[in-house]
Write a structure and sequence with these properties.
six-stranded parallel sheet, single chain, two-stranded antiparallel ribbon, Rossmann fold, 2 domains, 9 helices, 258 residues, alpha/beta, Quinone Oxidoreductase, Chain A, domain 1
Length: 258
Amino acid sequence: MGDRVLSTFSPGRLDGPGHGSARVPPYVMLGGTHPGVLAEFVAFPADWFVRAPVTLDAAEASTLPCAGLTAWTALVEYGPVRPGQTVLVQGTGGVALFGLQLARTQGADVIVISGSDDKLARAKALGATHVIHREREDWVEAVYRLTADRGVDHILELVGGAHLGRSIEAVALHGRISVIGVFEGFTVTGPSAPLLLKEPTIRGINVGHRRGLEELVRAVDRLGLKPVIDTRYRLEDLPAALEHLDRGPFGKVVVESR
């Protein structure tokens, strides 16, 4: 009684793959098959919750079950990223900035791509090793320049669609691409020649399981990791929060009920 808790994103997925099949992939999630959490109060079964980090307030902790866990699953659970490797993140949204912070804690160099000078400067201050303004230069060519043609070891593909092809061009031999975003569509495409010759691992990321969230919570407390919140809105200001989300925040937009 009285514990501070976080809801899991995929109820019932305690560890390993979600419940589903080849014909019907897992699609059990809050805000999908189950009610979401945009409310003053919610009531869920006890095993849909994990303890919240002691080092974060409620708003900061609320960013972990989806954005935080997605980056954790890609870079720690499935990666794992190792010291000396290079990680590339696309954009400066919630998953991207969690990826930046987690990769740096693993000892990796991080390249951030954005179309905003202000956001690139803030990403640099957050620990990015290199930044690329995607509207001023071809970002794949910039990756080649920054890595002496080696490419990057792990890419968080947050755009999706045909953009996957650019990630295949930028990834190092035997590197990894974690497909997360769908901003450019749900059908991914890319060139087959570098795919075959480089032999990268391309893996879709479906947020993660309860064990991963519990491990992330412990890591947050141990490492002192602080989620990046762009703006906090009151529940009655939800329309403004959604407009901000549509514009593209630096990190997360959080809605607080009180």
